[in-house]
Amino acid sequence: MALIKEDVWSVVDGTEPIPDPTDTNKYNKYVLKKNKALAIVVLSVDPKLLYLLGEPEDPKEVWNKLADQFQKKTWSNKLQLRRRLYALRLKEGGSVQEHVKTMTEIFNELSVIGDQMNEEDRMVHLLASLPESYDMHWKQILKFQKWNLSQKRYCMRKGNLW
């Protein structure tokens, strides 16, 4: 998000073309953006992991190294995340907010590796992960299903389903 906020993501993802070095003004602006992107990425890495980057010079290369190391789009990663999702259960008396947060993190990790779930599937997984003591709330859950997406997201963020 910091890369987007600072308007340098296009340098990292390679969508911003490198200007002709003879156009000094445009080229210098590009170099500033590139250096800013590199600084944001490198400073965001845990110091214990900086060895993975070598001598970083290009933010796109650094990003790709990190993605290759931590966001591998393999079947085993997908399987591991799916298993975590399917095994996730809210314990009786546990925090719904923490449960929703954990589940959202898994959904986000799945999205990063190209296995995005739609809102309906997310809701099904969430409701299925609740303990039996929540069964008495089916009327509210059915009402919840009729809510629009912004109402559902607000409720999920607050960790308060009803």
TrEMBL record:
It holds the Pfam family Retrotran_gag_2. This is Uncharacterized protein. It comes from Petrolisthes cinctipes (Flat porcelain crab).
